[in-house]
Amino acid sequence: MSEASQLLVRRIKDGTVIDHIEAGKALFVLRALAITGREGTVITVALNVPSSKHGKKDIIKVENRYLETSETNKLALIAPRATINIIKDYKLVEKRKIQLPDSIAGIFKCPNLKCITNSGEDIKSVIDVIDKEKMVLKCRYCARAISVDELVF
Amino acid sequence: MPNPFYDRDIVSIKDFTKSDLEYVFSATDRIRAMKPSQRGELGKGRTLGYIFYEPSTRTRMSFEAAIASLGGSSIGISELKSSSVEKGESLADTIRVIDLYSDVIVLRHPMDGSSRFAAELSENPIINAGSGSEEHPTQALLDLYTILKEKGRIDGLSIAIVGDLKYGRTVYSLLYGLANYKVDIHLVSPPSLAVRKESIYDVQGRLKITEHNELDGVLQKADVLYVTRIQRERFPDLQEYEKVRGSYTIDNATLQKAKKDVSVMHPLPRLDEISHSVDATKNAVYFRQAANGKELRAALLALMLNESPAL
Ligand SMILES: Nc1ncnc2c1ncn2[C@@H]1O[C@H](COP(=O)(O)OP(=O)(O)O)[C@@H](O)[C@H]1O
Ligand SMILES: [Mg+2]
Ligand SMILES: [Zn+2]
């Protein structure tokens, strides 16, 4: 860790550090994980931190919460390079890469405006990943193939 | 083979295998051969509930005729002005209530994916009778059945699909159904109404498709001409609409250039994309196609409502 990021990323005792988030995406990451701050625990967000690998990055620290793989895999389309670090008693006990899940519910809007998930009905979008290599997605409702850059957050 | 349709939703034709399709086709053959009295036992005491958020003539009438021929009854709403939908009732609540009164629900709705949503909410099976520009699976079932009856086979045929391929939901269900067969597909449309690639992504590997802007080039090849309506609203420019409409009209001069035994099909309603002079030719299949709609839907309902129907 560089000196600048050390300062920004104060060590935590217990919790999860999401590192190497694509610069500018941290707020989307919080939204995707439904972290609002109302949980009451300390959450630190750092934007545009200088990074040796990728120029700039964002970092999120969530204290006293261990994010599950099923939660963090939702980030695959927002911050595919992010790393998940689980900290227990100041020690790094687990380091994970994000993997593309088979489907993602309720985070993205289907880009098809005529899709029932974009109506006033009480319905959550479900986006299936139908080709992990080519990153092709498909709306489970309107059945249209979607590319990652078409996703509406 | 156990009945693959019993208590199943008919949301997308993609949910069914080739042998499922063949199962309903042979059930349709059998139900056509049955005496009305036998047939009238298959749906006795059962109720079909329908709600049409968009206009329909054939689809709704053929479902009503189909359930009646099985001895069942139908209830429903096709005039939204007389229902609580006008007061802003959600699709979800509307479906939940129809579900209480029916054994099977037929839904037509303008949004893509509406039937899948309804199927999640409903205890009883849902039949998608048109979901936006997504699908119209029972239309495709009767289309495939009609091709099979007219031609004796589906494999090996050359099938031209003409008209509004971008918004026509029957086109998508038909393409998904044809993905189970070895056919040459020729898609004929103006460039602005070409098929949506994002809606055939997962079947395109199983379809041999050639796209065209002109009808002329495919006429010598096509065993089936499947014609769909082009709506004026799709064109910003009236002149462009007139031009396209004229170039895709099927009339006796078109038939002169086509295979002698070409089957001209149409999901109906037709406006003037098929000239009335074609009606009297042996190539006109569209009314037999509409007749098959009732029979196929009756077979489908019998299979959905009974685990082992006597047919
Ligand atoms: N909202 C729509 N989106 C796409 N196609 C439609 C729509 N409404 C009607 N159609 C077209 O109408 C024809 C089928 O009519 P259908 O919807 O089955 O009505 P009917 O019940 O009167 O037969 C097809 O050509 C279909 O593409
Ligand atoms: Mg119809
Ligand atoms: Zn969708």
What does this structure look like?
The complex is a heterodimer of chains A (153) and B (311). In chain A, 11% of the residues lie in helices and 36% in strands. Chain A is mostly beta strands. In chain A, β4 and β5 form a beta hairpin. Chain A is elongated. The mean pLDDT of chain A is 90. Chain B is built from eleven helices and nine strands. Chain B has helices at 18-33, 36-39, 58-69, 91-101, 114-121, 137-151, 169-178, 216-219, 238-248, 252-257, 286-305, and strands spanning 47-52, 73-77, 104-109, 126-131, 158-162, 184-188, 208-212, 224-227, 263-265. Chain B is globular and about 50 Å long. The two termini of chain B are 14 Å apart. The mean pLDDT of chain B is 95. Classes of the chains: A mainly beta (153), B alpha/beta (311). At the A-B interface, β8 of A face α5 of B. Magnesium ion is lined by residues 58-59, 139, 267 of chain B.
Show the helix and strand layout.
The complex is a heterodimer of chains A (153) and B (311).
Chain A: H1 3-8, E1 15-22, H2 26-32, E2 43-51, E3 55-63, H3 69-72, E4 83-88, E5 91-97, E6 103-105, E7 126-131, E8 136-139, E9 145-147
Antiparallel strand pairs in A: 1-3, 1-4, 2-3, 4-5, 6-7, 7-8, 8-9
Chain B: H1 18-33, H2 36-39, E1 47-52, H3 58-69, E2 73-77, H4 91-101, E3 104-109, H5 114-121, E4 126-131, H6 137-151, E5 158-162, H7 169-178, E6 184-188, E7 208-212, H8 216-219, E8 224-227, H9 238-248, H10 252-257, E9 263-265, H11 286-305
Parallel strand pairs in B: 1-2, 1-3, 3-4, 5-6, 5-8, 6-7, 8-9
Residues 110, 112, 115, 117, 139, 141-142, 144 of chain A line the site of zinc ion.
CATH superfamily of the largest domain in chain B: Aspartate/ornithine carbamoyltransferase
The SSE string of chain A, one letter per element, is HEHEEHEEEEEE
The CATH H-level homologous superfamily of the largest domain in chain A: Aspartate carbamoyltransferase regulatory subunit, N-terminal domain
- Give the end-to-end Cα distance of chain B, rounded to a whole number of Å: 14 Å
Biggest pleated sheet of chain B: 5 strands, parallel
The CATH topology of the largest domain in chain A: Alpha-Beta Plaits
Strand content of chain A: 35-45%
Helical segment count of chain B: 11
Number of strand elements of chain A: 9
Order of helices and strands of chain B: HHEHEHEHEHEHEEHEHHEH
Query: What is the tally of helical segments of chain A?
Result: 3
